[in-house]
Amino acid sequence: MDDKTAKIIFQPSGRRGAVPMGISVIEASRLLGADIEALCGEKKVCGKCKVRIEEGFFEKYGLESKPSHVSSWQEEEDKFIDTEDRQAGFRLGCVTKVLGDLLIFVPEESRAGKQVVSKAARDIHIEHNPAVTLYYLEVDKPTFEDPTGDYERICAQLEKQSGFKDLRIDIQTLRQLPAALRKGDWKVTVSVWMDQEVIRVRPGKFEGSYGMAIDVGTTTVAAYFCDLGTMEVIDTVFLMNPQCKYGEDVMSRITYHMMNADGLEKMSNDIIAALNSLIDQAIEGTHPPKKKVKKKKGEKDAEQWIEVPEKGKTYRRLTREDIEDITICGNTAMHHILLKLDPEHVGMAPFPPVIHHSLDIKARDLGIHINPSSYIFVLPNEAGFVGADNVGVLIAEEPYNKDEIQLIIDIGTNGELVLGNRHKLISSSCATGPALEGAQLSYGMRAAPGAMERIKIDPETHEVDYKVIGRDAWRQYSEPQEMQAKGICGSGILDLLAELYSTGIITKSGVFNKKGQKSERFRKNPDTGQNEFVLAWAAETGISKDIVITQKDVRQIQLAKGALYAGCKLMIQRMGVEGVDKVKIAGAFGTHVDREKALIMGLFPDCEIKKIESIGNAAGDGCRAALLNREKRAEANWISRNVEYIELTMEENFQQEFMRAMQLPHMTDKFPHLEGLVPAKILHQK
Amino acid sequence: MDDKTAKIIFQPSGRRGAVPMGISVIEASRLLGADIEALCGEKKVCGKCKVRIEEGFFEKYGLESKPSHVSSWQEEEDKFIDTEDRQAGFRLGCVTKVLGDLLIFVPEESRAGKQVVSKAARDIHIEHNPAVTLYYLEVDKPTFEDPTGDYERICAQLEKQSGFKDLRIDIQTLRQLPAALRKGDWKVTVSVWMDQEVIRVRPGKFEGSYGMAIDVGTTTVAAYFCDLGTMEVIDTVFLMNPQCKYGEDVMSRITYHMMNADGLEKMSNDIIAALNSLIDQAIEGTHPPKKKVKKKKGEKDAEQWIEVPEKGKTYRRLTREDIEDITICGNTAMHHILLKLDPEHVGMAPFPPVIHHSLDIKARDLGIHINPSSYIFVLPNEAGFVGADNVGVLIAEEPYNKDEIQLIIDIGTNGELVLGNRHKLISSSCATGPALEGAQLSYGMRAAPGAMERIKIDPETHEVDYKVIGRDAWRQYSEPQEMQAKGICGSGILDLLAELYSTGIITKSGVFNKKGQKSERFRKNPDTGQNEFVLAWAAETGISKDIVITQKDVRQIQLAKGALYAGCKLMIQRMGVEGVDKVKIAGAFGTHVDREKALIMGLFPDCEIKKIESIGNAAGDGCRAALLNREKRAEANWISRNVEYIELTMEENFQQEFMRAMQLPHMTDKFPHLEGLVPAKILHQK
Prior knowledge:
Mean pLDDT of chain A: 85
Shape of chain A: globular
Strand content of chain A: 15-25%
Radius of gyration of chain A: 28 Å
Distance between the termini of chain A: 44 Å
Number of strands of chain A: 29
Structural class of chain A: alpha/beta
Oligomer: homodimer
Helix content of chain A: 25-40%
Number of helices of chain A: 20
């Protein structure tokens, strides 16, 4: 590394590269396409460009960690960054200069291009049987003839109305009971958890009770905010998983824990804080929005906030305490980190989790700020690499209630596979890595504005046409400077692979075809010595650099698709079936990706395209089912122990299948019906 | 109030009086007999005389609360009192001068004459069936063939060994599981609570598990520290209830809560802190004592601590975490305050408690520092004035398993009565007040050094002979200045009443007999205008003042004995029985007091003396039974709802019986067999 450039990594976007020494962090973020908010145009007055300099962690990347890597503290920063944040490493991006290699974390609120997340609630059938139910009780007040205690008084009435016996009461709820009874003139509404424990008491009559189903993904945390009475999804809220700053995938988080004594504590605290802010987000949505207005003339010249509710919309004005139940799912590592359970062994053969079974944990024991006596239900894990999120998928899809043989593929940062029907279910995981989602590629990025999401390559000229998120017009109908491309996201990647192959730019084995090149876009990078293909020239980008795909990138994508395909194939062999009746693709990937291209490129096993179905955020749907129907919780535990986990890497012919599956494209001759849908060349080239 | 004296109240001893302005707090404590430690002889170097000036609370006593009531902060104090304590009002008694009326709290560690508490463990029969049991497990390590999770791995083994199914595990224990399994090479010892939940896991093989049974009294907190495996009582530990500073009896604590927004919080925190220090005390007893020694010559001239274990004694070296179970009992108000449950309604007709039923509360939820996953079992309450302590007495004595009709009297700050046998049990409480324990009298004090515990009055001369705690020789065999008397404690009080009456100093109705006085000890106090009788002249005391009993004092004792007797009598009437087969007296009072005198003075209902039995700290014994035998917990809940509570003040002839019972002595002609045991005059006077 020379003296004139510094290596910068922005988290959580993963954008990285060398930038000139001495430029500001905001300028660096522009160059690398990391999108820091700067409302004031770097006039140092908005304070929106707060970032955290993550020097400590930097050492893991083999870079030095010296305070001198940034310019010194500026007076302007005092206004926006308090002492605590300053100690945590926060700086304003507009005044902080890059003086050396840096790892920079851009917090959610400082990100200009918010992530585009696709985890909306699907309409699945759920029977109404929530774990938390409300009872309105009217009791007699105590007299000398009947001086029975407050709790036994409501218990007697509950038994009379609902037959409950031996109910417990949480100590925190018990503390509220005497005041509630007297304030409500001996009429109260109590919330009962699983017919076992009184977890809330309110004076008078109430009808609403609320809950959240939270899917803690490696990258995204998504929650359904539900009315437990009507089952309505009131809101769907998202956040980036703040643990991204510790590493993008599961293994790097486990590694972070193993290399830092307080790593688990920090990562757990971060995700708990994120859950709390997700809860706040959901609650805020139930209040009418507020607007700052000036008072009329003659009155004091002061500003004030007034509510400006939308016309025709009813707001519920809920508080955190109105959330009385939460269900959570996530992969085994996310599950363990959230609960501060040592995730080390999940990452080491034979990958045993600390626990499979579901857990009911008091919200207060996890530091989750809802009704304090409430429980958090954490879905069970199947295995080290097939976690509670997959259990969520299963209880949403219920393959164990079907005759048809389903293959359910959940492609996130990891690939999770389930195959079978009512007679038998097997599961496994495959290390797809995050390549299919756009990470780990030279110019890979998540689905955010500026990401190339569709790509076409002209077979004759090898000219590239593409579309970016946030702009409707394709490249060929735009001026170069209008594109502002920043990288390639998941859905663009499969497009790209198919186009590179069908135009002969790469061969069946994924190597750049030196003989067939028709444009100067193909070149050898003088720095790396690697072959690469330019997708967008610097002038078309928002990062002032050519966006390219390298030989290494192609290999990454091949590894991912190979792992997935080989996994599916070995599962089918192991199950001893000829083929599958249905392929269900869960996760954002399934929603965004072109099913035909995926099939042709050999991501999934060969089957008719009409048998392929995208089931969206099925993990979240299962989590929601467990929130609204307590029997789904028992079902989750049952299925988590009744799916047979196959360690694919232990299968005899794993290596061979994996190598074969890396080839492009895979046995496309089996899909004559696809002719016309996809470029002819793909179908006929062999 | 004049300018030259200040009114001082010392807590928790309750010693009070007027002292000259300008003297130090230590000097004031000497004058009033409040016993502040001053090892250094007031040379300002030991720091042992720390006291807390309780000015805020002072207002309740109708006195002003001004910071000017004490002299300003001295440099010497910095050395012993940190900022936090200073803010809490701590001062050194030796340098702080009295400049006005004060309420002063003397913390446990600053008290010179430690309390004498009699709550030793009785030998009662308890079947061994503790709630917490240990299991040693050896499991196979995970393999690719069996990658089952850690928790399910130990569950499978537990089921194989002990048949347990559907065990839960506490999240905090689960966090320790992976490390314990690996450290113990797949051999662990787990603690299981009530066959339901795993609450501790330790690597390797362990055999000991420990618990505490804690009786939270209004005045004293006493705990049995037990081996759950062998049932041995390892130690019995005591502390004063630190809530004494908020008021000596239950009602004044409830009042403190009602008059102070943070009153409940403060009192609860204080008792929790006391429980934690009690736990520390128990744990420290398992470590060999340490002694400071200088190293040998030639070595560095430094001091160090070395252990000096007693010969032949085995120390266990336990930690707080080794305590895995705790049972707690206390009267309803103490129960509520400990648990931060509003005690207001317990103090107001019709006195409903917040809850009767027992509670299982996580130690961490109460802030009790033992094994964090453990539960605290809180015994159930019978009624507002018959609390969990009485349930403790019942499960220790089991009157519900007997044919004979028992009357069980628990005299503490309140009197609790239970009457009946296997067919029926009724209970009630009577407001004895703390007079029988020595409080609320002009010179009443608790059983501590300097307290007059035995008193004799010569019938001819009315000269007084007495014995004080801490000195074997009676007054007549000592020099006056050797006595250092400070007040009268509970056991002295009944002696005194009997002597005053038998010598004709007071009449049957409790009034000083002006005609029969034979010494100058009887006098009219010029300040109060009240008649009084001198028990010890100033020269014999440690407080430089005459110790007297006043007409008001006699009335207090009469009220207490009247309430108790009338209560017993009304219970017997209500039960419709002729008499009782046995009278059992629980509490320290029963252990210390002369049964004959008590009977003669009319404390208990008429019965043969051989039927009277002292059962000591039966509440603590019951609490211990619940600790060592889980079935006693269910029994406690059953009996708490199957004793009929009688509100005595609602009984038709309560007032009449109460007035009659105040007379001295009560029907002594029924005890001819006592002749010779007690002064003849008592038996024949009518």
